[in-house]
Amino acid sequence: MMLTRLKAKSERKLAKQICKVVLDHFEKQYSKELGDAWNTVRDILTSPSCWQYAVLLNRFNYPFELEKDLHLKGYHSLFQGSLPYYPKSVKCYLSRTLHRMPSERHQIGNLKKYYLLNAASLLPVLALELRDGEKVLDLCAAPGGKSIALLQCAYPGYLHCNEYDSLRLRWLRQTLESFIPQPLVNVIKVSELDGREMGNAQPETFDKVLVDAPCSNDRSWLFSSDSQKAACRISQRRNLPLLQIELLRSAIKALRPGGLLVYSTCTLSKAENQDVISEVLNSYSNIMPVDIKEMARTCSQDFTFAPTGQECGLLVIPDKGKAWGPMYVAKLKKSWTA
């Protein structure tokens, strides 16, 4: 009885923190864009007690005992289906219940054993199909989870992690320091460049580029504590697609011919997802969409996807028992001819 009362109290506390300005704005937009699916998505996004966290094991300090323990607690391995690209070195576990592992503390000189993440965050990383020895750019890299995941997939010849925001850059450096052994740090470069300048600074340098773009972060925006700031964010939201397109233009310049580019966001917004990719595809004759429908088919037991109307784009939406996302992923290829 006591537990039920405590749970109800905690739910009330969380409910109070939901920013009505943002929720009303999302309600108008997403009920149109997602139709009936929005009702379930909204229920999950506004109930943090339903959120799930996946456990990505760190191959550079492998926790064998923890892995056994996760099996005993009923965790299962992500992507039990056969994805076209899924390196054996990537070990990510999910719980079917709402069990949450504690986060590990940052300790200088000690590598962390695991990283907690929204499981959908692995999709853009896997879509990039990183191979040993390749040069890869993570254009908007903080807080560093996707860079860490890339290094679980392969040993790149060179990994460039860029972050323009100085506070987030510190977070990125700490994440890398917590997970990556010293010898591997030598192949990683961290920079603080405006991502829109990267293409001019390093033209046709990279085999693979990840653009995990700044976006309307739906989960965190819903819990904005300052409603004035939230209203300001919403009014500036219409400028985000322009920034995202400029980042993609820069990424395309930095990509070598024949290379792959993956664009991702953690918003449901069509203006920041499908519309941005359509604009880029219409502007370049040498950028081709890459079909990733197979990824959605293979992952359907762990994720719920909303239709995007694009063969090169997937949208993961939070669902009951699969509270992952929002995560939009699009895959493009730069051809040899302009």
Question: What descriptive keywords fit this protein?
Answer:
14 helices; globular; alpha/beta; 18% strand; 4-stranded antiparallel beta sheet; disordered N terminus; 338 residues; 9-stranded mixed beta sheet
The unreliable regions are: 1-7
DSSP strand (E) fraction? 15-25%
What's the tally of helices? 14
- Gyration radius from CA atoms, angstroms: 20 Å
What coarse outline follows from CA principal-axis ratios?
globular
- In terms of quaternary structure, what is this? single chain
Task: Outline the structure in words.
- The protein has helices at 2-17, 20-34, 37-45, 64-72, 122-127, 145-153, 166-179, 182-185, 198-201, 218-221, 227-236, 240-254, 274-283, 293-299; strands spanning 54-57, 76-77, 92-94, 114-117, 135-138, 158-162, 188-191, 206-212, 255-265, 287-289, 305-306, 313-316, 327-334.
- By secondary structure, it is of the alpha/beta class.
- The longest helix is centred in the first third of the chain and has 16 residues, at 2-17.
- The relative contact order is 0.14.
What's a concise summary of this model?
It contains 14 helices and 13 strands.
Which helices and strands, and how do they pair?
Blueprint (H helix, E strand, L loop, with lengths): L1 H16 L2 H15 L2 H9 L8 E4 L6 H9 L3 E2 L14 E3 L19 E4 L4 H6 L7 E4 L6 H9 L4 E5 L3 H14 L2 H4 L2 E4 L6 H4 L4 E7 L5 H4 L5 H10 L3 H15 E11 L8 H10 L3 E3 L3 H7 L5 E2 L6 E4 L10 E8 L4
Parallel strand pairs: 5-6, 5-8, 6-7, 8-9
Antiparallel strand pairs: 1-3, 1-4, 2-3, 9-13, 10-13, 11-12, 12-13
Helix pairs in contact: 2-3, 2-11, 12-13
